[in-house]
Amino acid sequence: MDGFSLIIGGEKKPTARFVEIRNPSNGTVVGRMPRATAADLDSAVTAAESAFRTWRMEPDAVRAEACRKIAATIDAHAEELAHLLTLEQGKPLNGLGSRFELGGAVAWTRYTAELALPVEVLQENEAGRVELHRKPIGVVGAITPWNWPVMIACWHIIPAVRTGNTVIIKPSPQTPLSTIRLVELINEILPAGVVNVVTGDNELGAAMTSHPGIAKLTFTGSTRTGRKIMASAAGTLKRLTLELGGNDAGIVLPDANVAEIIEGLFWGAFINSGQTCACLKRLYVHDSIYDEVCRRLTEYASKVVVGDGLADASALGPVQNRAQYDIVSSFVDEARARGGRVILGGNPKGGSGYFYPVTLVADVDHGCRLVDEEQFGPALPIIRYHDVAEAIAKANDNAAGLGGSVWGSNLDGAREVASQLECGSVWINKHGAIQPNAPFGGVKQSGVGVEFGIDGLKEFTTVQTVFC
Predict the structure, then answer these.
(1) Which residues 6+ apart lie within 8 Å of 19 measured at CB?
(2) Domain named Aldehyde dehydrogenase: which ranges (predicted)?
(3) What are the catalytic residues?
(4) pLDDT tens digit sequence for 112-130
(5) Residue 344, domain member (yes or no)
(6) How many domains does the chain contain in total?
(7) What value, to the nearest 5°, has the Cα angle with vertex 175 and ends 171 and 178?
(8) In 10 A of CB 303, how many CB atoms?
């Protein structure tokens, strides 16, 4: 349980207070999170500001090579990090679990290392030369969630340092340990103060959003918290990248080959036990194939093993924390009370872990929380529709707009439906397949700005126009 400290200015900093971190599979203590104070945050800002003065001046090639080395170091320690991640987050080591997440962290880091933002020449003629330069912003505050803590930490840290910024990251108090270890490894490569980690409760995050020494804030989490961050950051006019909650809709068209899409539907909805912003969270199925989709999904889902993340057979783990477990339970119970037909799951067995069974709820519609709100857990509502226009209207009838998907055999028809969905990303015959070269972000109340690729890299810069 020892060995986890704040990292400020390249050094481990002890704290007087700690919080026990428990394995959601069985409740055992897996480590202690150090609780940072406001003074610790000030120290981290001072260290990051000092490091920024020199890091920003490093040649682009030096920063790119540093990111390559970070990727190699993460890869070399992937098994250690994956094991720690499973202990504190609950997801299985195997399948689409912790080893998968570490593979994603390495892939995103390697890809981002090769991106660049060279000077753009906007004009060169007898009237003169105009250049567009992109410059680092300064100290970046990063606040990350508990669902994909290592990969999302890399999404925040790597583009920031690649463009010459310095970072203070605050991981979720539910899953801080793997991020602390990640930052330890990063500090073996980068100069002291370029990446710092402070850990604590929500008050620490609130202090970051208003701190005058932090120039940009990047956050992944709920829309409710995103609103608070935007309000708090207004006092210092921080730049913001906010990837917020989603309530992604999937529309299964009447021409879909049901047998071929069932596996994709299941994992689009239940990867990481449904604890993913861009999971499929509402499934609209045409009346002509509704019963077949329900039957085949039930058959497939009933064979998926839910269990302790360290067990080789486990394909899905527990819900990460009690609060989220209670949300999922209450949403399913309300849907059942409103006439929803629970065709699989819905009756947790209890015990020491937060295990909620894979749950499918048929014959529900708008007006219950399982459909209207983000459940962020292993429960999927299946909504019957009769007309495609009706399904599109219902899919768009939500404040969230992160992702969406369309499932059908006629690709031209599927693309036409996809073009009408109000979301930042849309997939055809798959869901949630993000990649490092494609911008990812939400519309409506699912976020501000984008991540990944060149567009995501630009989020960590300001523009300076030079007239010659």
Answers:
(1) 32, 33, 35, 173, 201
(2) 17-466
(3) 243
(4) 999 999 999 999 999 999 9
(5) yes
(6) 2
(7) 80
(8) 8
What secondary structure does DSSP assign to 202-234, as a single string? HHHHHHHHH-TT--EEEEES-HHHHHHHHHHHG
Tell me the three state secondary structure of residue 347: coil
The whole-number pLDDT of residue 195 equals 99
Q: Which tokens go with 23? A: 């394995």
Helix (H, G, I), strand (E, B) or coil at 11: strand
> Any residues with CB less than 8 A from the CB of 286 and at least 6 apart, and which?
252, 253, 254, 256, 384, 385, 386, 388, 391
Put residue 425 in one of left, alpha, beta given phi > 0 → left and psi -120 to 50 → alpha: beta
Question: Measured between alpha carbons, how far is 460 from 165 in angstroms, rounded to an integer?
Answer: 8
Measured in whole angstroms, the distance separating CA 67 from the mean position of its chain's CA atoms is 21
The encoded tokens of residue 28 equal 């055992």
The pLDDT value recorded for residue 2 is: 63
C-beta separation of 112 from 158 below 8 A = yes
- pTM tops 0.90: yes
Tokens standing for residue 67: 């990111």
Domain membership of residue 159 (yes or no) is yes
Nearest to 201 by CA among 400, 15, 443: 15
103 falls within a domain: yes
CB 332 within 8 A of CB 361: yes
The answer to whether position 47 is within a domain reads: yes
